[in-house]
C-alpha cells in the first residue's frame, strides 16, 4: 500500500496502512537492529542507529546518503504508549529541530501508522523529509511482508 502524504506549511503528515498487526509494526520502531533494517531513504547506503527507547531516552541515526554525503539525526523520546504512540524531538543536523508524533491504529490484522512532523523550516524541506520517510515506509512494508510470509 502506498502512503498518503499531506504537506501543510511547516508540517507533514504521512499515513500508511501496513498489512501486519499493531504490536509487530510498533516493535520495528523500538530497537536499533530493527530500525537499521528500514529507516532511511532509498539512497541511504549505510545507516547506523543507537536507541535508548524510553521516555527521556535518546537516539542517534547516522546515514551515508549516496550523492549527498553523511547526515545525522538525533533526538529524545518525550512520550511512549506501547503499542499506540511514540512522540519524540528530532534534531535534523543544523537544519531544524522538529517534533514527531507516530500513532499506531489497530485495524483488525492491519495497522494504520500516522506520522506527523511539525517545525520543519519550509515546504522544500517538507518535501525532502516526506519523500525520505515514505521511502523508509516502503522498506518497512517489504520487511513486514517477508516476516508475514515466514509466519
In short:
With 151 residues, this protein is of the alpha+beta class. The protein has three helices and eight strands; from the N terminus they run ββααββββββα.
Report what the structure shows.
This protein is α+β, with helices and mostly antiparallel strands. The protein has one domain: START domain (Alpha-D-Glucose-1,6-Bisphosphate, Chain A, domain 4). Helix content is 26%, strand content 47%. An eight-stranded antiparallel beta sheet has the order 1-2-8-7-6-5-4-3. Strand 7 and strand 8 form a beta hairpin. The mean pLDDT is 92.
- How many helices? The count is 3
Task: Just name the CATH architecture.
Answer: 2-Layer Sandwich
The CATH homologous superfamily name equals START domain
Biggest sheet: strands side by side, in what order? 1-2-8-7-6-5-4-3
- The count of β-strands is 8
Helix content: 25-40%
Distance between the termini: 20 Å
- Provide the low-confidence segments as ranges: none
CATH domain topology: Alpha-D-Glucose-1,6-Bisphosphate, Chain A, domain 4
